[in-house]
Amino acid sequence: MSKINREAVLNCPVCGSKYKQKMPQIGKHINSKCVSCNTVFGINNTNDCCVYCTYSDVLCPKTQKKIKNSQRK
Ligand SMILES: [Zn+2]
Ligand SMILES: [Zn+2]
Fold it and tell me: What is the whole-number distance in angstroms between the Cα of residue 11 and the centre of ligand 1?
């Protein structure tokens, strides 16, 4: 059983820098603040799950769980 990855590396769309952020387990996180340029960026449309699913290298814990559950038969 693979475990849920809670550490995301976000890719800032403004300055292109990457920074690590721990993903919280609950709540909908639609934006994040870049640590190098201090820009707050977020998801562009409501169909996107959260800022992690859109801008980081991993999916948020909620989506990871959903995928895992859908694979279980
Ligand atoms: Zn930035
Ligand atoms: Zn998500």
Answer: 8
